[in-house]
Structure formats: structure tokens, C-alpha cells
Amino acid sequence: MVDGPEHVKKLTLPQLQELAAEIREDLISVLARNGGHLGPNLGVVELTLALHRVFNTPRDKFVWDVSHQCYVHKLLTGRKNRFPAIRQTGGLNGFALRTESEHDCYGAGHAGTALSAALGMAAARDKRGTDENIICIFGDAALTNGISYEALNNISQTTKKFIGILNDNEWSIAKNVGAISNYLNKLITNPHYNKLSRDFQSFLRRLPKGALALKLAHKAEEGFKGAITEVGLRQTGSLVDADGRGGYGSPIIFEEMGLRYLGPINGHDLPLLISTLEFAKTCDHPIVIHILTQKGKGFEAAIKFPEKFHGTGPYDMNTGDSLPAKAGAPPNYQDVMGQTLVKLCQKDNTLVGITAAMPSGTGMKHLEKAMPDRYYDVGIAEEHAVIFAAGMTTMGFHPVCAIYSTFLQRAYDCLHHDICLQNLPVIFCMDRAGLSANDGPTHHGLFDIAYLRCLPNVIAMAPKDEDELVDMMFTATHQNHPTFIRYPRGAAEGVPIKDQPQLLEIGKAEVIQNFSNNGKRKVALFGLGPLNTLARKAAAELAAEGYDCAIINPRFTKPLDAGTHEFFGKAADVVVTLEDHALMGGYGSAVLELFSEKGVTTTVVRIGWPDQFIEHATTQDELRRKYGLTVENTVAKVKAQFGEATAKVTRLIEVA
Ligand SMILES: Cc1ncc(C[n+]2csc(CCOP(=O)(O)OP(=O)(O)O)c2C)c(N)n1
Fold first, then answer.
1. pLDDT digits 0-9 by tens, 568-594
2. CB hemisphere CA count around 333 (13 angstroms)
3. Is the CB of 113 within 6 Å of ligand 1?
4. Long-range contacts of the stretch 208-217 (C-beta < 8 A, 24+)
5. What is the C-alpha separation between 5 and 204, in angstroms, rounded?
6. I need a labelling partner for 7 at 20 to 30 A (CA). Which of 23, 55, 98, 508 fits?
């Protein structure tokens, strides 16, 4: 067993290869139970071993883009014992986390941040005059992201010592898209370039240890570099390729940006990786090493289905099959969204669908399959997706952008400047609004109500179930304003979906149950989105204990239904708001603001997420229990308002 990175340095090559096989077994067996990013991690086993062989963390820094591929790094940095509980309550986080280990120098979960963060570290190192190695590991899909280019543009003028590793497996979550992906492919398959690269690699491979040899290698690399600048990547001889795209007559894009470029090299060839990294370590110029890896290497099902095994739920270790869904289980929200969009597109030819590299996660794959000419995957490029949608809207189209709540944060300025300021009627379907329990704080979507409700022109809604999601999508297609629909990850409520969706009145809440005016103490429960279920259950318990409860489905967080809120606010003895969102700035805050304006003085009990980043856990329910988003706590808090707290109740309030 390898306890720490120092052990990796003591192993012989065959032992390292044995360790690679053991790591793959660990990954496959643990993730079969816990789910997680299997394919990406199986692809970087040799790379991670080579990195720990050549460099010394925590002094040297590994910055992983997204960091979903850092499980192997976790296994090699003293966390093997905790690995079986990765992504589970109290267990390791599925991403790099500074608070988890000194070997995790930078936390992430969103794509495209690694090059900038690593360059910042390199600049800081240069400023303080130390000599740590900063190594940034980024995937080919990171090159669909704008921030990556902002960093690349800035590297050569900032530092002389920077190692980038481009881990190219041709896949994002789905197949990678765009011109850069074509470019990398041309680079990989160019015969002239490859011959030169191979010659240099075999030279590196044969290089004996020692400073003199490395000096020699640098000389050889200069010659290699001179030769590649003369090799255009054009293979067809014409200015434009057969597919109509540019012929990429220029040589290597990284070289053009002032970085040395080495590769492409086989990212599973451990000795070659080690000698290349040894070489890179002594470079006095920023360098990018382009390695080719296979996503899912070592597990047949993951190789065959790279998209499914990018981030998978539990599966059968022998077959790779997902655990069977329970008969009659409700559909996932993402599929309801995707299937509804197909139906809406069939009736309205101005509608199009846009995803930022998440066709399966958002359900956009349904549109891709049914109407590929109405579907756009723009890569991991949320800002571009939003502005691209804005542009289409100005030409009479009605784009539906499906982006997770957490990733839409990336495009906040675009929402403000391009969408809301121009009042463009783009429809945003925000999946994973609420918790993404296994993933944790980088992926929880707990802030969108707050970040949207301050922007003028916004219509923001939250369905209580899948039928209402369909109504809201249908309603959104009739609006002349930016429209946002937030809904949670995973299974919907299991209600039937009407054949013909209903046009909802904008800014009108749904009163599910009015007061019965039976003379008992009145509680008005406003349950937003999925927490409407919780409101109904709490109301049932309260009614059993002698309260007169009204239940309201607010539907809109903007515009808020001022009339309904004011009416029930004034009629009730206690108002309860329930939301799957941060309390700070959320729906309950909006209600308090409204009450203050209208002079409603009734006490408001707000149930939602506290002002802290919520950790990961095995299930959403565990976190809801811990933070008091439960029927029990709702009932307890209401009773406390009437001086009816019991000992048990008081404890629950403290937890919340
Ligand atoms: C801003 C943002 N958008 C979307 C995602 C979802 N996402 C996670 S990993 C990934 C693909 C990463 O592909 P690549 O960088 O090539 O690494 P690979 O998994 O292929 O090794 C995407 C789109 C994200 N993490 N961050």
C-alpha cells in the first residue's frame, strides 16, 4: 500500500505498473458503490503516478482543471483509507479541496480555472523568489472555455517556469466540440509532425540520468522546435479543408502563444511520461505537454460508454450496467425538460436549444436526437452560451438555454449586460437548482434566486412538480422577457403530466389550500418548488395538532405575487416560507421585503439553507435533516412561535 507520494518515488517501474493496476481496481470497485468520475480517473492513472514520481507535493503544486480527475492523486497522498467513502457523508470530497489535504493546493469543481490559478501561483512564486514547480493539468475540453485562453494569453509574459499538461482524450462529458477539438485532432494525426515528435520522444526515452544529459535534451529540443515551426499542419494542400473549415496552415498554437509545446505523447506510457516530466522540470521556458489518454482505460464498459462513465451513479462491477430503476419510478426533471422542449420545438420553429457541454445532464440530448438542426452544444462556455442566445434572440429566435444553476453563475455579467439590460426573451432552464448532494459545494445550486431577483426584467419561476415544469416552459415561450425556471436534480414528484400544458398567469401564486377559518391559530405555508411537498406535509401535521393551515405554491420568485402574499400575510398568525435555496437573499427574503413595504407585521419563519457553504453528503435528505429543512423542524419552529416548544423541538431549532 502506498501511504504517501514519497513511496511512489521508491518503487521500480514494474512495481509502479503493478500499482497502476491496483489503483484501477480500487477506482472500479469503490465507484461501483459510490458513483463518481470513473472514466476521467481511469484515464490519468499513469499521468498521476508519473507526476508524483517526478515532483514533490505539497511543495510542488498540481492544479487540476475541474479536479474531477484527482481521485488517483487522493489515493497517492495519504487518503487511501478514506477513499472507500468518497462522495459519501463525512468521506472524501469528489474534487480537490484545500481543507482536505495539504496536497490539494487549489480547489475546483467548475471548469476552466486551472490555467489562471496555476499562473497566479507561478507569478507569486517568482515574486517571492522560490523555485516550486507549478503543474497545471487541463483536459481538451478546458480549451473550449474562454478563461483558459485568457490565461494562455498571459503565461509567456508572466513567467518562465510553468508546466501545463494537456490531457487529451477527445471527450468532454460528451464528445468534445468545436474548432479547437478539430485542431487537436489534426495535430495528433499530422504525419510529418508526428515523425519529429516520435524521434524526440525516443531520444528522451533513452536519455541517461544526470544534468549533462538534460542539457543535451534541451539542445535536441531546440532542434526539434526549429523543425516543427516549419511543419504546417495542413495535410490537404488546399487552403480550405474538404469539410469547408480552415486548413490550419499555422503551426502549433501553443508555440504561437509563446509556450514550448511537446507531444503528443502516449499518456499511458509511464517511462515516457516520467522522462518527459523530468525534462519539463528543467525547462527555463513555459511548456505545454500534450498527452493522449483513453477515458475509462482498464474498464471495458467505461471505454465503450465514455459519456455515461464520465460521472456515473452506482453500477455492476462486472458488467458496468447501472442498477435497475425501480418500476414506476418518476422521471428525472432533466428528461421532462428535454422531452418537453422537443414537443415545443415541433410546434414553434423559432425555438432552439443551447447547452454548454452538458447534453445528457440537462436533458438537451433529447433535442439533439430528435431535431439536431435546432440544437447547439457550444462547449464548456457558459458566457458564450448566454451571449450567443442573446444574439439569436435579436434575430427573431427564442433560445432555451439549459445550464445548471451553479454553472450559470459563471455567466452573471452576460445575464445582466446582454440579456436583462436588453430585455431579451431567452428562456433559461436551470437544472440542479438545490443540492447536488454527492458533488458538494461546487455543484449545489443554492444562489440563483438571489442573483436573479435583483435584475430588472426577470421572470423567475420554480415548479412544484414535473407537470408544472411543463406549464412553466410553455408559459416561458409566450414571454417577451428573460425567463428563468429552476428545478432540482434527479427524480421528479411522479405526478401525471397533462396532454396540453397550461398558460400560467405571470406573477400569480397558486393557492392549494385556503384557511378553513375554524377559529384555530392560522399558519400560512408558502412552499416554493420542491419544498411545496414539505409545506403540505408540515401543514398536515400542524392541522392534526389544532392549527388552521393555508398552503400556497408561490410559483414565481419574480414578480412575486404581492396580492396573495399580502393577503395571507395579514390573515395568518404565522407565515412560513420554504425554499431549496440560501436564506440570504432568497425567496423568504423577498417575502420579508414585501411585508416591510406593505406594512405586514406577521412573524415569518424562513426554512432554507443557512449562510454557509454546504458540504457534500450521501443523500440530499441527510443534509436536509442536518440543516433543518424537514417537516419536523418546520412544525417545531411554528409551534415555538406559539410558545409550544417541547424539549425535543428546542433541540431541533438549535440544529437549524
Ligand atoms: C463551468 C463548468 N461547466 C460545466 C462543467 C461540467 N463538466 C465537468 S467535467 C466536464 C468535461 C471535462 O472535460 P475535460 O476537461 O476534457 O476532462 P476529461 O473529463 O475528459 O478528462 C464538464 C463539461 C463544469 N464542471 N464547469
1. 999 999 999 999 999 999 999 999 999
2. 29
3. no
4. 214/278, 214/279, 214/282, 217/279
5. 24
6. 98
**If you measure from the C-alpha of residue 66 to the centroid of ligand 1, how many angstroms do you get, rounded to a whole number?**
6
Helix (H) or strand (E) holding 163, with range, is strand 163-168
Q: Give the CA dihedral 120, 124, 126, 132, nearest 10 degrees.
A: -90
Nearest to 55 by CA among 124, 103, 107, 127: 103
Ligand 1 centre from 297 Cα, in Å? 18
Interatomic CA distance for residues 11 and 538, integer angstroms: 60
Pocket test residue of 143, 380, 414 for ligand 1, highest count of atoms within 8 A of CB: 380
Q: Which helix (H) or strand (E) holds 652?
A: helix 647-655
User: Atom 23, ligand 1: which residue's CA is nearest?
Assistant: 357
Q: For residue range 409-457, what is the model confidence (pLDDT) as tens digits?
A: 999 999 999 999 999 999 999 999 999 999 999 999 999 999 999 999 9
Query: Does pLDDT of 652 surpass 60?
Result: no
**Would the CB of 379 count as within 6 Å of ligand 1?**
no
Tell me how far the alpha carbon of residue 286 lies from the centroid of ligand 1, in angstroms.
24
Percent of the chain surpassing pLDDT 70: 93
CA of 309 to the centre of ligand 1 (A): 13
Ligand 1 in reach of 68 Cβ (< 6 A): yes
With cut-offs at 50, 70 and 90, classify the pLDDT of residue 654: very low
Identify the weakest region by mean pLDDT among 93-102, 114-123, 128-137, 189-198: 189-198
**Whole-angstrom distance, CA of residue 83 vs CA of residue 98:** 17
What's the rounded mean pLDDT across residues 123-128?
A: 98
Residue-wise over 163-181: b if at least 16 C-beta within 10 A, else e?
A: bbbbbbbbbbbbebbbebb
Which among 184, 114, 111, 187 is positioned nearest to 155, based on CA atoms? Answer: 114
Length in residues, the chain: 656
* pLDDT given for residue 190 in this prediction: 78
Report how far ligand 1's centroid is from the alpha carbon of 172 (Å).
Answer: 6
pLDDT in tens, 42-52: 999 999 999 99
Predicted pLDDT at 247: 46
> Are 45 and 299 within 8 A, CB to CB?
no
Average pLDDT of the chain is 93
Which residue owns the Cα nearest ligand 1 atom 19?
Answer: 40
Is the CB of residue 47 below 6 angstroms from any atom belonging to ligand 1? no
Q: Can you tell me the distance from the alpha carbon of 281 to that of 165, in angstroms, rounded to the nearest whole number?
A: 12
Active site residues: 295, 382, 410
For ligand 1, atom 17, the nearest C-alpha belongs to 139
| Predicted confidence band of residue 239 (pLDDT cuts 50, 70, 90) | very low
Give the separation between CA 212 and CA 193, rounded to whole angstroms.
27
